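Input C-alpha cells:
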C-alpha cells in the first residue's frame, strides 16, 4: 500500500485517578473516534488508579507509551483529555515535545485538539509559550524567597554540622541564656535560625 494512503497508526492512552473508576469508557470512545477517522489502533496503554500528579516512573502505561514514541511505533497518540497525560503544564509540554521531536501527532478528544491540523499545531506552540512562562514564574518565586530569607538574616545553604562541637554549642546556649535573641545568636555564630532554636530549646 502506498505510504500516502496507509491508514494512520494510532496508540490510545487512557488513565483514571482511582481504582473506583474504569478506563473502559475512555477506551471505548477513543476506539469509536479511530473508527470514524479510519485510523488503525496499534496499541492501548493504560494507567488505572494512578494520579496524573505522579511522575512517569510511577505511571507504567505512560512510560511504555513514551518508549514506543521514541521508537516511532505509531503516527499519533490519542487520549481522552489533556489532564490524562499530566497535571503539570511543564510535564505535559515535556511529553508533547518528545512526541513533536519524533513527528508523532496528538489527538485530545475532550479539547478537540488534533496536531495534524493548523489550529492544533498553533495550540501546541502556545502550550510551549505558557510552559516557558511557568518556568520563569517559578524561578522568580524562588529568587524572591531567597532574597527575603537573606534580608531576614536566615542562613542559606547546607547547615553546618555543629552538634558535635561541644564548645560551640555551649557558647551558643550561654549567649541565649544571657538574653540574646535567637536571631542575634544565629548571626553571631553564623548558623541558621532554626539551628539556633533547636540547640537552645
Amino acid at each position: 500500500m502506498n505510504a500516502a494512503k496507509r491508514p494512520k497508526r494510532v496508540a490510545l492512552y487512557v488513565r483514571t485517578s482511582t481504582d473506583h473508576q474504569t478506563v473502559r469508557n475512555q477506551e471505548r470512545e477513543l476506539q469509536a473516534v479511530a473508527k470514524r477517522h479510519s485510523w488503525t489502533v496499534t496499541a492501548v496503554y493504560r494507567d488505572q488508579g494512578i494520579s496524573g500528579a505522579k511522575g512517569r516512573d510511577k505511571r507504567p502505561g505512560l512510560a511504555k507509551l513514551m518508549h514506543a514514541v521514541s521508537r516511532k511505533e505509531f503516527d499519533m497518540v490519542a487520549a481522552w483529555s489533556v489532564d490524562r497525560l499530566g497535571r503539570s503544564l511543564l510535564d505535559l509540554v515535556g511529553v508533547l515535545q518528545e512526541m513533536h521531536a519524533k513527528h508523532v501527532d496528538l489527538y485530545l478528544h475532550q479539547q478537540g485538539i488534533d496536531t495534524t491540523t493548523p489550529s492544533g499545531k498553533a495550540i501546541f506552540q502556545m502550550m510551549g509559550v505558557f510552559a516557558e512562562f511557568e518556568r520563569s514564574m517559578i524561578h522568580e518565586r524562588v529568587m524572591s524567597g531567597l532574597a527575603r530569607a537573606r534580608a531576614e538574616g536566615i542562613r542559606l545553604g547546607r547547615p553546618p554540622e555543629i552538634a558535635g562541637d561541644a564548645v560551640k554549642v555551649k557558647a551558643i546556649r550561654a549567649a541565649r541564656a544571657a538574653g540574646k535573641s535567637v536571631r542575634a545568636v544565629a548571626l553571631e555564630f553564623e548558623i541558621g535560625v532554626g539551628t539556633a532554636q533547636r540547640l537552645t530549646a
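The first strand starts at residue 9 and ends at 15. The chain has a mean pLDDT of 80.
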